[in-house]
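For this section, I looked closely at a protein sequence along with its fold in token form, which I now present.
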Amino acid sequence: MSIIHKATLTPSKKEIFGAWLATQAWCQGELTGTIGSYRFDDPAGKVGIECVLLEVGDSVVHLPVSYRAAPLDGAEDFLMATTDHSALGKRYVYDACADAVAVRALLNAALTGARQEAMEVYDQGRFVERREAVVTATGTGAWDRHAVPHFDGVTVRSHGADSRVEAGSFTVVVKRIVDGTDADGAESIQVAWPDGAGSLVGVRHL
């Protein structure tokens, strides 16, 4: 279960994502809207993990991000921004490809066939509603979750429209531009939204 706090972010997610995408050579056009997102949980409950689908120019952009209460050591180049969250305080927003906790969540979902977390909205600690999923995500693998190996860190080998991340004995491929082709990998995360579907995260065994 993924908990969403009814809160104000300053700057907003749209402002953060738009400013960051404007600095990326692989992204062309202006951010005009948000289609939706899917989430996977950090078992420790410390890192927020969200993969957002955005309308940018004539393209759909897939943007995995992580939210932390403190800086992530060694990931300075992947910090998108800091934001003031009215419920949680200062949050550090990262490109999730450099966040081992987020990458492990994506890897685990792809290998075990997990579905995205249901999202429940809370306001000042009180349950408000369960948010209907606009975007759905399901892994294709059939591994037992206990068989997914642990790794301490990740190495981003390429950082573009198809980002490649080494995580232990795996390479996780993240498609950032939805172009009708699938992410490379033996297992994957299949994502669907109102106007499309595709494999946006792929996993290769090294």
Remarks:
- Residues 2-205 form one domain.
